[in-house]
């Protein structure tokens, strides 16, 4: 048998501290996370504002069948163990149903299953659809110190699989709950459909691509409905505003002013995005017509693909003529 060494009092103290530190590993926030300084749950109002106007987004703006509008908003209060969607990640089947069809039920079931399995979800909230590109909708939701993150998604209607939303936004910091937050939203491609335009037919992307932000130059294709190569950035297509509701001493919520009602048209300053005229390629030259011994003329044409808007470059001439030697002179 080996001889055991005596353990001093200081060694015992160090060992006890190590055990205590190891037992608190789960209490330490992950890198990049901030401890929530709030002690109680709180309620927020949330207002979704569509800023999708023909002035800001004149290219292929949907005017009918259907006109520009937004699906219902679906959101969730959660902790870092749950991910509703993430840029550069892959859309779940539930997200695909929401962003392609506006159907929230499968995604709601995914959220509920994650909440039951990992206790990662505090609550689901929703707001009604917006029937115009520049309308508003609103609702209330609750968060608690253990679930201070908010994620949401709203489908762009019509579109192949485009949406706007926020991912893992933390409403709490070391000082407590944030009082007011306003976030500009930009379009995302879910990577589940390969259409380029608002009205593109359904064409599944197999295998799926990752979720990516749509910009004025990406996808870099002239047919893309958001392709504005002269812009540095797209104007915001929507906005989300969240405001913490005050509580009376007895715990009743005090209604917030300025929480807009559903479907109201929004009077807001909008960017005037210039849209240049786009034309087809020239046709082939026609026959050279004329009399023998003299120069004749031939003609070619092109047509307008996209009308200009907001002081964009006007359309050029759609036909031109040039001199030629007659082929079959008379």
Q: What would you say about this model in short?
A:
12% of the residues lie in helices and 27% in strands. The chain has 330 residues and is of the alpha+beta class.
> What is the number of beta strands?
17
Q: Average pLDDT, to the nearest integer?
A: 84
Coarse morphology: elongated
**Helical residue percent band:** 10-25%
> What summary fits the major beta sheet?
7 strands, antiparallel
CATH architecture of the largest domain: Sandwich
How large is the share of residues in beta strands? 25-35%
Features:
single chain; 330 residues; Immunoglobulin-like; TSP-1 type 1 repeat; seven-stranded antiparallel β-sheet; four-stranded antiparallel β-sheet; elongated; disordered N terminus; Spondin-2; secreted; metal ion binding; Spondin/Thrombospondin_T1; glycoprotein
């Amino acid at each position: 048998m080996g001889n055991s060494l005596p353990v001093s009092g200081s060694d015992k103290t160090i060992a006890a501290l190590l055990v205590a530190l190891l037992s608190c590993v789960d209490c330490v926030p992950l890198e990049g996370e901030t401890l929530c300084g709030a002690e109680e749950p709180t309620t927020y109002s949330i207002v979704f504002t569509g800023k999708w106007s023909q002035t800001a987004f004149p290219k292929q703006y949907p005017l009918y069948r259907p006109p520009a509008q937004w699906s219902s908003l679906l959101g969730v209060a959660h902790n870092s163990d749950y991910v509703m969607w993430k840029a550069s990640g892959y859309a779940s089947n539930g997200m695909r149903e929401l962003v392609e069809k506006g159907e929230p039920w499968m995604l709601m079931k995914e959220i509920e299953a994650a909440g039951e399995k990992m206790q990662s979800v505090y609550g689901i909230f929703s707001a009604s659809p917006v029937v115009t590109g520049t309308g508003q909708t609103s609702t209330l939701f609750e968060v608690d110190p253990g679930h201070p993150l908010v994620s949401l998604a709203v489908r762009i209607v019509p579109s192949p699989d485009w949406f706007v939303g926020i991912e893992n936004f933390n409403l709490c910091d070391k000082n407590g709950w944030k009082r007011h937050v306003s976030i500009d939203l930009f379009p995302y491609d879910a990577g589940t459909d390969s259409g380029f335009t608002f009205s593109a037919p359904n064409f599944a992307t197999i295998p799926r691509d990752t979720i990516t932000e749509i910009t004025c130059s990406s996808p870099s294709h002239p047919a893309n409905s958001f392709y504005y190569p002269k812009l540095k950035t797209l104007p915001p297509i929507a906005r989300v505003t969240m405001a913490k509701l005050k509580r009376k001493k007895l715990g009743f919520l005090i209604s917030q002013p300025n929480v807009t009602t559903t479907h109201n048209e929004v009077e807001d300053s909008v960017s005037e995005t210039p849209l240049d005229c786009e034309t087809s390629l020239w046709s082939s030259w026609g026959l050279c017509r004329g009399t023998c011994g003299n120069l004749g003329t031939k003609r070619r044409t092109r047509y307008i693909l996209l009308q200009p808007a907001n002081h964009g470059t006007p359309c050029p001439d759609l036909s031109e003529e040039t001199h030629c030697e007659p082929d079959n002179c008379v």
